[in-house]
Structures are given as structure tokens and as C-alpha cells.
Amino acid sequence: MNPPYGFITINNATDDDSDHYFIKDSFGNPSGSNAGAKNLSNLITVTSDAQSVTFEYDENEDRYDVVDNHADTVGHVTLSRNAGEFDLIDGAIINPNANFTSGSTGSIKAKLTTPNGQVVDSVLIDVKRN
Fold this sequence. Notes:
Blueprint: E1 7-10, E2 21-24, E3 38-39, E4 47-48, E5 51-52, E6 54-58, E7 63-67, E8 73-83, E9 86-89, E10 93-96, E11 105-113, E12 119-129
Parallel strand pairs: 1-12, 2-3
Antiparallel strand pairs: 2-10, 4-5, 6-7, 7-8, 8-11, 9-10, 11-12
């Protein structure tokens, strides 16, 4: 049984740019290689007033803005490495290092905050390498 959030599986076994795994917003950003890319909304679920929201990647802040159906920013999601032999670049790009070999596992912490920075919740997203 899967946990109540998404998980990431990295398939490539090389150590070059094709190996980077992009966690994208609702509009396909950050742009770049699509090697294993997954939409953040497939990894975590955030709602506002019982409505689904969209995520907009903010490269200046290394986070995702949470936008409701009225185009209002209702919060932010920040990703950080929790465990595992990989770097999390710009809060959105997983770059496995040489020790993150087949069978390796790790996790990313997704933290949801209000627009003024109050922490609402956080979950872990599992990361594994085939």
C-alpha cells in the first residue's frame, strides 16, 4: 500500500545532466530535462477552501507558490532533502551523487506555509533509485 503522498523513482544510472530529476509545477517549470520529471501535484495534495490549487514555481525563492482558483497566493511549498545521497538544487531538481546507486532510498521534506510564513504541515516524499 502506498503512503498518502507520492513517491519518486529515479531510473537513470548515469551521472550527467540526463540524470537530474525535475519536480515540476502545474505549468511544467522549472524547465529543463524531463528525465523522470513529475508534477508536484502528483506528489502532494494541497487544497484551499476544499478546492484544488495550482503550484507555480518561484525560482527566485526556490519554492512553489500555492495559488487558488481565484489566482490568489494562499501559501508556499518548500522542498528540502531529508535523507539520501543526492542534492536538491534550486529546491526542485534532484541530482543523485555516485553513492545513490540502484536500490538506494531517501526522502524529501515538503513544507507547506501560509503567505506570511507560518508552517501549516509537512510531509515526506520517498525517493528511490531503480
